[in-house]
Design brief:
A 4-stranded antiparallel beta sheet has the order 4-5-6-7, with no helix packed on it. The chain has a 4-stranded antiparallel beta sheet with strand order 8-9-10-11, with no helix packed on it. The protein is 0% helix and 42% strand. The protein has no helices and 14 strands. By secondary structure, the protein is an all-beta fold.
């Protein structure tokens, strides 16, 4: 559960116990806040019970409720861990892959990305079949829905509704 004032509380449905999660950022009070509660995170619990937290400008965090550890993953691989980058490091939605339980799909400021949960690696294979129908370089994806092993539906503020072919990377 994410709230504006108190941050994130993780409720384990198997045990009925709740735990408050406090995630602070390395840069402290820069930009007027130093905790996650003011960023309106996208929360997603995967099939293994791991909580994934997508954030605007800050990439993605995961929280392991079994050992109470959390870790940050940039979606921009070549940037330092504490980077704030709204244009390239924002995560707006998170979904499971329909076939591979080790893959998550991310709706981001630079398109649809896949995240390998075991390797904590990000891959981008997202290109437009018809550049005349797109913004050209990159597409901010707000929401996505993984339909099956081949298709992801997504939406965008400017382009509208589209679909992404997982097998060939074309939208």
């Amino acid at each position: 559960v994410s709230t504006f004032k108190s941050g994130i509380d993780y409720l384990d449905l198997r045990t009925g116990k709740a735990r408050h999660i406090l995630i602070t950022f390395k840069e402290g009070l820069k930009k007027g806040y130093n905790t996650i509660e003011l960023l309106r995170p996208k929360l997603f619990v995967d099939n293994d019970g791991i909580l994934w937290i997508g954030l605007p400008s800050r990439g993605i965090y995961y929280y392991n409720p079994f050992n109470h550890q959390y870790k940050h993953i940039n979606i921009v691989n070549d940037k330092p861990d504490d980077i704030i980058d709204a244009q390239n490091n924002s995560v707006f939605d998170i979904k499971n892959d329909k076939v591979n339980k080790d893959i998550l799909w991310l709706a981001t400021s630079t398109g649809i990305l896949s995240l390998n949960k075991k390797a904590h690696s990000i891959s981008k294979f997202f290109r437009c079949l018809s550049p005349a129908d797109s913004l050209g370089h990159q597409v901010k994806v707000n929401k996505l829905d993984v339909l099956n092993d081949s298709i992801i539906w997504f939406c965008n503020d400017l382009v509208g509704l589209g679909y992404y072919n997982i097998k060939n990377g074309v939208y």
